[in-house]
Every structure is written in C-alpha cells, then in structure tokens.
Design brief:
The complex is a heterodimer of chains A (464) and B (431). With 464 residues, chain A is of the alpha/beta class. Chain A has helices spanning 2-22, 30-42, 123-126, 165-168, 223-230, 252-267, 284-294, 314-318, 380-393, 440-463, and strands at 49-53, 56-58, 64-68, 75-83, 89-97, 104-105, 129-130, 149-157, 169-178, 185-191, 194-200, 207-213, 234-239, 272-282, 303-306, 334-337, 340-342, 367-372, 400-405, 422-426, 432-435. In chain A, the strands form four sheets. In chain A, strands 10-11-13-12-14-15-18-19 form an eight-stranded mixed β-sheet, sandwiched between helices. Chain A has a six-stranded mixed β-sheet with strand order 2-9-8-4-5-7. In chain A, strands 16-17-21-20 form a four-stranded mixed β-sheet, with no helix packed on it. The radius of gyration of chain A is 26 Å and the shape is globular. By secondary structure, chain B is of the alpha/beta class. The chains are: A alpha/beta (464), B alpha/beta (431).
Amino acid sequence: MIGNRARAEVYRHLIGKQLTSYVGLHRKPCWLHSALAARWRTGSTPAPVLTATPIRALVDEQISIKAGFLPQHSPVTLCAQMRSEDGDLWEAFGHYYTSADGTVNLARDHSVGGSYLGCEPMGLFWGLQPAPGERDGLRLRMKNVEIPLIVDISLMEGHVSPRERKSTELAVVTTERWFMAPGVQRIDVRQNEVVGTLFLPPGPGRFPALVDLWGMGGGLVEYRSSMIASRGFASFSIAYMEHKDLTVKLNISSADAYMKKAFNILRDHPQVCDDRIGIIGLSYGVYLALRMATLLDLNPSCLVCINGPAGINLEFTQTFHKPKTSESDQRFWTQAEARYLSFTEMSLPTNYSPGTQVKMENLACPLMYILGEDDQNSPSTENSNLIEDLLKKAGKSHLYTCLSYPGAGHLIETPCTPHARMSMWKVKPEKVFALWGGDIAPHAAAQQDSWKKILTFLDKHLRA
Amino acid sequence: MSQAAPPPILSVVPTRALVDEAFKVRVENLPAGAPVTLRCLHQSEDKDFWEAYGHYISDAAGSVSVADDASFGGTYRGIEAMALLWSMRPVPGSRTGLRLRKRDVRSPMLFTISVYDGHVGPDLAGRPPLAQVLVERWYAAPGVRRVDVRERGVRGTLFIPPGPGPFPGVLDMWGGGGGLLEYRSALLASHGYVSLALEYFAAGELASADLEFKYFETAFEVLGQHPSVVPDKVGLLGLSLGGMVALCVAAESSVVKPGCCVCVSGSHFYPRGTALSQISRPTYGNVGKVRVDEDQNLIWRDIGLPVSGDLSQKADVRRINCPLLLVNGQDDQNHPTCEYADDMEAMMSSVGKRHLLSRLDYPQAGHLIEPPYSPHFRATNFMWDGRKAKVTLLWGGQTKAHSDAQEDSWKKILAFLQQHLYSLPCPRARM
C-alpha cells in the first residue's frame, strides 16, 4: 500500500511539472484539456480559486467575479448555469486569458468569445440564454420571488463551451440571485374584486408607493414589485386579465373602475404615504397608467411608462380576451417572421379606436417614458412621439422625459433579466410566438441603465 | 392632506453577506443637522437580545453615513463602520456572562438595523423607529457542504467548498469549553478550505481525561485522506487550548506534517502527564495563583507563570518545521500568551528557526480573538468541571481594541493560510 502511494505521489508530481510548462503556448486538443483539469483533481496542488462577491445578491447588485492561482497568460472560460423554476437550463459563458499574475477579474479583463465580448462584469448574468436543446420560446419570469435563483459560476480550462464543463471544470461558486431583500413582506391582496400582491419594505413606514402594471400577457407578475420594495417603496402588482382569482372580465370602462379601486386600496393602506403614490407600467400597462393619471381623479405623483401606447384598437384588444382566437381575429396580427407575431401595425396611433386616445393635456405629474428602439412587439417609437407631441401642444413638455435605447426590445425589465427576442405567446390552438425585438447586449444595457434612472426618478418625485 | 415630511431612507449594503464582510449603513432624507440614533438588534439562538447603538447628527444634505461620520455616544464612539455589530452587548435586564455563538450555520444571523429620532438610550421599548432594515449575515456560502464526521473514533463536522477541488484543508480546534463549534470552519470553507471542526471533548465534561495525542493525529489523517483535500496542504488552526494542541501536534508528532500552523491565544504550556482537560486550569497545586477582579471574574493567567525553563513543562517548539503564526492579545487575562510567545520565539531562535515564526500581538485585546465583527466578550460564564459549577472567567480586552484585533487578525490569518496552503510552489522571477 505504501509503495503504491509513493508511486502515485511521484506520478502526480511529474504531471504537475510537465503540463505547467505547456500551458499558454498553444491551443490544446481535448484530451489534454481533461488531463490538466484532472491534474488539479487528483494532484498535489490545490485547484485554482474562484470567488464571487457578494455571493448572495439582489438582481440589481453588481457582483465581482475573480479567479486566481492559475498559470499566467492561459485561456480559461467562465461559465454561468442556472435552472429556472420550470427546470429549463440557462447558460452564458465568456472566454478569457489569465493575466501575468495568473488571475482573472471580470471587472478588469475582456471576454474574447462566448455569450458576450469585452469588459462586462455582469455579462455572465445578463447574457444567460436557454441552453442548446432546451424548449423553444423561453422567457425567464420568476414566479416565486421569495426564493433565489441559483446560478453556478464555473471556471473551466481552455476556451470551451458549457457542454464541456464536466471535463474541464477547475472551480465552481454557487451564487444566489434574489428578487427580494430580507424583511420585505409579501401580502396577497384579494379585496373588493381586486387581485394583486402588495410588497412592503421592512419597517414601520409610512412608505412612498407604486402601482405596478404589466401587459396583456396577463397573470400576476411580481418580480419588479418585489425589487421596488427592496429599494424602499411599497409596491402593488395588480392582475387585470388571465388570473384564476379574477372574478370580473374587464373592458375599457370596467377596467377604469377596477384600477381606481386598486389605487385606493394602496392609498388607504396604513403604511403607505397617501400623497406619494406613482404608477409604473409596461406595454398595455402604460395605457392603464395613463388613463389613471388623466381620467380617474387619482392624482399620482409620477408615472414610469415602458414601451406602451396612449390609445388602443378595440377590435384588436378584444381578441386577447377570447379563449380561442379565430382566423378572422388573427388578421390583426402581423406575421412578422414565420410564426412570430408582432402587434406593431395594430397599435399604431393611426389605428387607435376613436375615443380611446388618452387626453394627455390632463396630465399633472412627471412622466418618464422608457423606449426600446427595436421594439418589435409594439410601435413604441410612434406611441412615445405621440405622447410627447400631445404634451407639447398642451404646454406640458416640462413633465415629459424619454429615455430611448437603441437595440433594446419591448420587454425592458429589471437588470440582468435574460433577454428574450421572442417567446411563447399562446399554445392553443397552435404554438404561436410573440416577437419582442432587441439584441442581447444593448437590451441588457437598457435594463441596467433604465433601472438606475427609474429609481432616481422615483426618489425625486416620491421622496423629496 | 398636505404633504407630510418626506420619509427618511435607511439603507444597508449589502443586506445579505458573509459574517466577515463589511457593510455600509446610510440614512438619507433627514432634516439637516438632525440628531438620530442608529441601532442594531439581534436575538440569539438562546433567545437573548443583543444590541448596539450610536448617536449621529445628519449633515446639511440630511444624510448620515456610518462609515464616514462620527458617533457621539451609545455603545461606541467615533467613526466606526462596523461597530453596530462588534459593540453589541446583551440588552439591559439580560442574564449575565453571555457569549454570542452561532450553532446552526445553515441559517443566517438576522440583525434589525433601525434609525430613531433623537439621541436615545437602550430603553427604546414602544418607541417606533423612523425606518428599519433587516440584514442577513452568514457563516456559510451557498454550495458549501456540511458533513458529519464519525470516522476512526474522530468526531467533528467537515465543511467542503463547492467545486471539483481539490482544496487545502484546515483542522480547526476550539478551546477548553469543549463541545463542537462549527462556525469558523463553515467560514473557512466559504474561503476555499476543507475545514474539519473537531470535537475533542464535550462541553463541561471531564470525558477522556487522558485524551491522547493519537486522537489529533487520526483527525489530521482523516482530513488529509479526504478525496477533496490535497494531503500535504493541511494546516492547523487552534484557539486557546486548541492552539496548544496545534503547537504540540506540530512539534511532536511524527505522523502529522502540517502545511502551516495558526495558534490564537494559545501557549506551548503543556506539563507532561497532565490530562488535556487539566491544562491551564487551576489545580490543587496552583489554585493560589488564581486572582479575582472587582466583579468576581476569575483571572487564570498567572497559573502558567512564570514561564518555566523546564522542557517537561512545555511542548518542544524547537521541533516545529512548518510556518507558525501566533495571534495574541496583550490584555489576555486567561492565558499569559505574550509571555509564552516570547519564550517560543527564544526557543525557535536558538535552533535557527526564527524565520518560521510570525507574531501578531494586539494591544488591549483579550483572549477570545474570533472572526471579525462578532461582539467582544470581556468576561463570560464557563462550565468548569473541576468545580462542577459555573464560574465567570475574565478574558480581558477593551472592546474597540479587541474588535480591531479580530478584524485585522482574520485578514492576516486568511492571507497566511493562502500563502502557505494555496500559493504555487514555483518561484517567480523577480524583475
């Protein structure tokens, strides 16, 4: 036994010496990749060190990823892998070269290949995409915001793809991505026929607050609200279509009454400042927000509008409420690319049904419009231009700010939300995909930048 | 209703962190020049409440930044970014002689940080804060695996970092209180070491009085043979009695070859033939050397003095062949650690091994030098089996100096471990 062990030690020692001198000189064939990784696994030196700080972070926080104790000027791959709640595998990777002191630092070094290029400290997160072979048309939407997403960050030897993780992995850290800070309370609201979720920051309050509205995808989307509450605002996500607890079917006028009730539920909450309430809306949620601000005598303190319209085409929106779209309904949907739907035609201002256009001259609070210039779902550029013109005509330009992001698509969400250029819209009667637009890197930049600016805007108008 | 005063904003960044990571506490949106109190409250696993608080004045912009502004009163004064943690003490009316130690490392410690109007004292019952934040602090990073060890008679808990490894190992030993404390090992694993928290006698028990050397050698082997561990990169880390064990094993074992050794508040005082549980304790022969302070806390430091020249009274550190780091508090009232460190230095110098030794001696620090930001314990209860009774031992140290020592020594201990257990052996060219 002792003899065998001594031989093994000598062998390990030799492997270590031999391969160290090869490293960095030329691209190695696959078997040597495994051998080098195996050397660390069975050998007499510890594996290289990989760190990520903070290891448990909110999704809008910067993480510092570093590796050390590597050979100098060597090719390595950093790879992120994550399983969504539905079990789908998402991944991203970057190809790096170690520095002269054998380190990699994502805040300093440049990716020369993979999911992103250049110096991108958070590229492993915003660059996450469904792994090859996963289901079509995936979009990452966190349903349970009280648990984190687990993202494994791996350090691999050589410039490889995530497929080769097992044979080339040198080190791993497990990071947690949180949509909710500790102490934030999540409260189900089913009151007065209103369906929603309220998020309250920790502490006695009172807090400035936000109504949070999403689009015609329906359901109850909580992850932006939970993040807003993690930044100190009470936030109320409201469901207005396709939710099992909704007892009312909403048309334009009944939606007004519904939203008024929802706003007042928030305003009447003992921990909410009743005179510091704003509204944030995405897509159709923008239209609802604009109606609340101009029609319903609610006096919100500010509005954040993301890629949404100031009017609607009634015939077209009606089609969303039907369980099964007929062929005649489908004439409203442009087949932008094969089987990918886009609503850019029907949502144009020229197609607004009469009487639906919001009276922007009644706006009495600041409005920040977040625009994705490559929005393939809705004609957001035309819609935002219309809003700007109407406000100008009413002498209220000072209320309007527009942040216009080239290369960004329709779904401008919280930072590091993986980008979906298209995703599954409906499954019946057949699978249909909605086209959102945008390219990964500029869309990620838009999410990062707009989030910061939204928080500053809310600070200014809800806290000052 | 007219617009009420804007609500103040309290932020702590990050809200989830490892226990040795710093945080930034800020208050904003206050009136200018407003007196406020920042308070940190924690309920321990034993259900005791611990608190710290500082008195601040907001600047012209209505902000307070704990990292930049001075506290004018409370449990700490001056500019102290982390004092809301390290100056914590049991709230008035608590049981006495308490020590704060996390037992379950799979869950975080929760701290409620609040800001109150005015400069207020510890009696805050019923007074609502202006704002509040909840903070999680963890000993273990996600992915760290916890494994119970019951192998070859060795009892302990193993913590393994995530990843394929292999990793250097650390044999982690606590002091004469006994029992099994896992938190430092969990933290070491979060920094990339496979760490074995070793139990070598149960708390307060006179079990296995003649605890054998062999137990530690076996523990070291069990750790070194673990598939995730690099066998010749295993270090020893011990506090107090654990430090003494580390020194003895490093010096006198023919089997154990540590990559390095860290001894915190330990000494090489080891009268041959004495049972481990009797070392540094008052016995019939030396009980007269025990002193008592004004609060009836027992001072044991004189038991080991004067430092004997007789080799049968101490571990022969001249035989140590690995790098050795000694971390001591100059106000240690339990062990005369600095005197012993002087003796160790002399012994090692006499055989030309001074270069292996590094010393960190912290003025006004006490005996219990632990990972950073944990509160300072000047005197706590101790189950001393010799008297079958609870006594209060004086550990020593002044809170601010002791906390600085904890913060500084932990950084240096991690750097020392990394230097000797991680760094590549090939020499680098010096330009």
